[in-house]
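Appendix B, record 7
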Amino acid sequence: HALPLSADETAHLARESIRALTDLDEQEFNIIITHPNSDPMGDLIVKAYGSIRQSHIKIIPSLGRKDYHGLMALNLSQPGSVICVGNSTSGIKEAGFFKCVAVNIGDRQKSRLKSGLVLDCHVDAPAIKMAVLAACKAAKTAFEDGQMINPYASEVSLSDIRSMIIRYANDHSVLIKKHLLTGIQYVILNLVLGRN
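Structure tokens (predicted):
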């Protein structure tokens, strides 16, 4: 993803990420790169992809949800075969459901809750490459060692969620993100709270 408000940082992120990925051994890695979402300055990242000439790297504008999740699901039958690399929430939240180790580049996801198998690294080609290689090693043993606890997977029930919402509904000390509610979200929120 592009970095909001900073064309220079976004271009730097793209260059360093590409340098790291193109430096990985062609015999050991098959790499699929997807375009960023329609974030401002995402075009800088797509433009940087033009420098990639390695045959083991494929650039696909969008896999779509089904193919993206299907690709990550390969890791369920062959642990360590898929590693998620980037600065997207997907590496933090979705990858864990498929038991994928993720390399999180830079500070974009800095304050997110993460599992033990999200490896953070700086926006620097050697650091990114080192993190990818460390992720490969970690992926092979992580699930046997019980390190992979996904903080986004839970046995929490709907009644637990309802109780939590009710408990904190009037607590103004709790930071609440403000979003415009669509009709469907409003209906779901009202159902959880038990309102008509």
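Remarks on this record: Residues 83 and 101 are 5 Å apart (CA to CA). Residues 175-196 have pLDDT under 50 and may be disordered.
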